[in-house]
Amino acid sequence: MLQESTAERLIQHARARGADFAEIYVERWKKRNLRLLDLEVQEATSGIETGAGVRLFFGTQVVYAYTNDLSEANLLEVTDTLARLKGEAGQVDARGAGGLDFRGSAPAGLHGPQLPPDERDKRWRIERLAEADAAARVGPAIKKVQLYLIEWDQEIQVASSEGVWNTDRRVRTRYVVTAIAENEESMQTGFAGPGLSVGLELFDLEPPAVHGRAAGEQALTLLRAKPAPAGPMPVVIGNAFGGVIFHEALGHLLETTAVARKTSVLTDKLGEKIASEAVTYVDDGTLPHGWGSSEYDDEGAPTERTVLIEKGVLKSYMVDRWGSLMTGYRPTGSGRRQDYTFAPTSRMRNTFIETGDTPVEKLFENIEFGLYAKKMGGGQVRPGSGEYNFAVQEGYVIRNGRVEEPVKGAMLVGKGPESIQRIVAVAADRKNAPGMCGSLSGAVPVEVGQPHLLISEIVVGGEG
């Protein structure tokens, strides 16, 4: 990691080469992966990555380079190379004179581990994962169980010509259980994957037996499921990972990555009613131990709770430094990147629909025929418009207000800005779930979430 004096010299050199703004991002990242198949170790790896990225602004034009050589001489050379890329903009400028007054603070520690990774050996990890394996085998049809443990311990520094000097430590742990069930007709999988910004205490906060059983039961349910019905119909979407639809088909439209380029259909809509009054949509980087939380973003700005939509009205976008420069909107601590090999862009953190006041059972009461999408899977979204199609991982027919037989192969097809207007009722049982989101600045950990909610009509694709 860099000394403050080294960062100051590098930034002053960048300003002397004509940059309007200079930023240095440094990270050290310890990673450990463990993968088991039927409790046999298939993979056990660990490693440390270090590197730095230099970003220079010349007006609204940005250049970025990265290196894993953290010597001052090399970082000066990288800075010179970036300045030369800008031609006339890179000529020597007197603004390089004068000192910097770095300001910053140590992280408050909301997201640090209580049980650091190095305090337990591989055998202990396997024993805890074995609890999930045993619980997943809920019947003879469960043929295989795969387990995957991910541990990250990342330290970052950010220094900039605006006086920012902040450090952050992000410790994240996640385990994934995949249960595979098989009969004479088909093979199905069940899935569970809790993750938080904690250390190995995750195993106590999210008991492996609970998630193992959930994965096994889901796999067995899908074995007896019938083909899903098709056509437009009311849909109740489950809580937790159900929020993935609005993350993908709505959240990305609210990032200044799209808004500043006017490629989002929600550009220039601040203050307008864009959703049902039942919807308040939030992106919160401050949730204690949230999978997508941190004290500071990857531009060194403090994270915050940003209300994006309040009772249907668009209140804010997610804004990074470049997005603020292009639009004039206030930065929201949303600049994120996968690692030092990526420049930051505006990204979601922990994004969810807030709780409502409708009892869950009342969501189903007046539905003559519809779909209960209890758990969502992956899907595809068209950037700019928010058109989506998402697989329903676990679904059930709703008939005369009752949840009945399980179905498989259902797809929800729609458009994010339209679907959010059709949310007619929201329950009070919000949960969040972890995932990885890919965009221009790589794959970053995020949470998605919502309570159970009722959408008056979505097109369901199915074979039934």
TrEMBL record:
InterPro entries according to UniProt: Metalloprtase-TldD/E_C, Metalloprtase-TldD/E_cen_dom, Metalloprtase-TldD/E_N, Peptidase_U62_metallo, TldD, TldD/PmbA_N, TldD/PmbA_sf
Keyword Hydrolase in annotation: yes
SUPFAM superfamilies reported for this sequence: Putative modulator of DNA gyrase, PmbA/TldD
Ranges of residues in domain Metalloprotease TldD/E C-terminal: 231-462
UniProt domain Metalloprotease TldD/E N-terminal: residue ranges: 22-81
Molecular function GO terms recorded: metallopeptidase activity
GO biological process: proteolysis
Metalloprotease TldD/E central domain boundaries: 116-223
Keywords, in A-Z order: Hydrolase, Metalloprotease, Protease
A GO CC annotation given for this chain: cytosol
Keyword Protease: yes
Family, per entry: Belongs to the peptidase U62 family.
UniProt-listed PANTHER family: METALLOPROTEASE TLDD (PTHR30624:SF4), UNCHARACTERIZED PROTEIN TLDD AND PMBA (PTHR30624)
The protein's name in its UniProt record: TldD/PmbA family protein
Native source species: Oceanithermus profundus
